[in-house]
Amino acid sequence: MAQEKPETPAAPVKASAGAVETRAATAGEQQIRMNTASVKSSYCNMVNVTTTREEVVMNFGVNESWDRGVSEYDVRLEHRIVMSPFAAKRLALMLGKLVSEYEGRYGELNQGN
After folding, report:
1. Which residue among 25, 28, 92, 100 is least crowded, i.e. fewest CB within 10 A of its CB?
2. Which distant-in-sequence residues (6+ apart) come within 8 Å of 113 by Cβ?
């Protein structure tokens, strides 16, 4: 049985035109270069997910209703991410690992938080 190598943390590397590339080694020895030249950051506090047989659709937005007592919320959708079910499963596994590590460091997250 082959041993898996631990993941190598992402490390910034030099890229052209002021962009920063991040290289991350995966357990299978593959290198992934991510060019961040056109990356944009957004704040989202709401996500909704739907699916069909062929794709998973995630809608990210900002809840603009600050009163918790209302029965209807106004959400400004910012991003829609469409992916295959295979990519969605990889994302779910990565998020599960990330949340477990977070809770190990900072304590358990409750649904009401």
Report:
1. 28
2. none
